[in-house]
Prior knowledge:
Blueprint: E1 2-3, H1 12-26, H2 33-44, H3 64-67, E2 69-81, E3 86-97, E4 104-108, E5 114-120, E6 123-124, E7 127-130, E8 133-137, E9 145-154, E10 158-159, E11 162-169, E12 172-178, E13 199-207, E14 211-214, E15 217-224, E16 227-233, E17 245-248, E18 250-258, E19 265-273, H4 277-283, H5 287-298, E20 308-313, E21 318-320, E22 326-329, H6 340-349, E23 356-358, H7 365-383, H8 385-396, H9 414-431, H10 433-447, E24 450-452, H11 454-465, H12 470-478, E25 483-494, E26 497-506, E27 516-523, E28 528-535, E29 539-546, E30 552-555, E31 563-567
Parallel strand pairs: 2-13, 19-20, 20-22, 23-24, 25-31
Antiparallel strand pairs: 1-21, 2-3, 3-9, 4-8, 5-6, 5-9, 7-8, 10-11, 11-12, 12-17, 13-16, 14-17, 15-16, 18-19, 21-22, 25-26, 26-29, 27-28, 27-30
Helix pairs in contact: 2-8, 5-6, 6-7, 7-8, 7-9, 9-10, 10-11
Amino acid sequence: MRSLLxxxxxxxxxxxxxxxxxxxxxxxKNFIPEQINNIxxxxxxxxxxxxxxxxxxxxxxxxxxxxxxxxLHYKLSFDLFPEERKFDASATITATTRQNEMxxxxxxxxxxxxxxxxxxxxxxxxxVSKNKIISIRNNYPITDTFEVKxxxxxxxxxxxxxxxxxxxxxxxxxxxxxxxxxxxxxxxxCNDFPVDxxxxxxxxxxxxxxxxxxxxxxxxxxxxGSRTTYxxxxxxxxxxxxxxxYSSDYVNFNDQYISIDNRDTMAIKYYVLANDxxxxxxxxxxxxxxxxxxxxxxxxxxxxxxxxxxxxxxxQLGAMExxxxxxxxxxxxxxxxxxxxxxxHEVAHHWWGDAVGPKSWNDIWLNEGFSTYCEALFDEHFYGxxxxxSKMVNLRMSDLDGSLINPGSFLFTQTVYNKGAWVLHMxxxxxxxxxxxxxxxxxYDKYKYxxxxxxxxxxxxELVSGIELTHFFDQWVKNVGMIxxxxxxxxxxxxxxxxxxxxxxxxxKEYEEYHFSLEIALQYENNIEYRRLFINKKAMQFRxxxxxIPDDVLIDPKNNLLIISQQK
Length: 568
């Protein structure tokens, strides 16, 4: 998820003016993309308020009865009535259990709906819907696989960022969902936690003027009278928060992606409102390039047998990486490619978050930190090293409080996104490019279509690198803050020998003593010389020999570290 939180009323006019400015700059031959990125970041620095989410995680612990279940398949059906803001729905859940003697089966499900009937293996049974849990009485022994069917109807409650929304824009109906992190249960019964992935079939019925879109591939479109049903199906497992529904008066246009082995041609499908069609054609046209870059870098696009898609929705705070069908806010479709970083971020999520899911929401940085760093990798590849460094400097200019491994109930913070990206950047600096990218490929390959924790990622890092990294992960992932250094230097010359005496002190309060590799630069009139030092004490002194006296000493000149430094 890429949450901008920058479209508040106070800057609507300024945003419009800024779009005009950057559009003009983009057309200027001497203005390169990373410069536009810098201007954008500086301009919006005081307006991007992503340090605290607007809601708390509603469900910290998984119900014990739900842990006994393994959901295999969701079969969902929604008959939409946008004008009445309600739907008639059916959910058939196929599951197995580790405990055959279960007198009660429980799912996460909001209790505001009228439940018409509940069946277990085709037999009606009793139930209680309370406190956002549906408890279903089981009067029969369960062997191997069983099936629960729940028919219900009503108007969904708004939940989290959106939940299930019946909305309108300029008189046009637009129905959509946004369930991250634990709000899929606001519109269908489920095990609403990321580790229990399942397959999905979903039928969406609406007025025939409306196009209905979901995850996976389109199996069938059936029209009955004035209403049309779209059947979508996944062949890859999906977490509940990534299941999506969109239905509106969409205009559809397509592109394609050819797999890196040239064996598969995958459709890229776009669904936008008619007024945004021309802008979207411009904004979206880089998607094949983005997908190809990440496929070459990490491994083939994980849902190659289905699609990559983008659907316009009315959540006005950015975009959401619903599996194979990203939702993109209508107000970022400007036709100027200004928000390329958002499209890059959401595509990257299909590796980090969708294919490799988090084992728990404490591991959310494995989604957001990874996808944020992918923005930097993309900039580096297409715009050069200076673009990478610019991106990392911008990510450092934020309030990075709190721990990555346990962000608490406020999940979507700058720490999770920006410090998460910095952890990967520092890991790359520590281990080198060859090992770092081998780690990402190995991690993706091992956990694709399943879930991973921070410890799982650490173990892959250690396996590939052959280096014990517990201290690295403890100081950067479990603990808080960043490196704060003060330093001073002096030079002396003895005959033909030149020496630089460098004193470095760690000044941060949050963490006693970081251990890290520090690059410094000895800057001369006509050249620059780089040295790598290892810091493992609060205060350290170094004597560096050189052929001449440097004019200056630079600390971390290539921005490899999450560090603030100042000369005494």
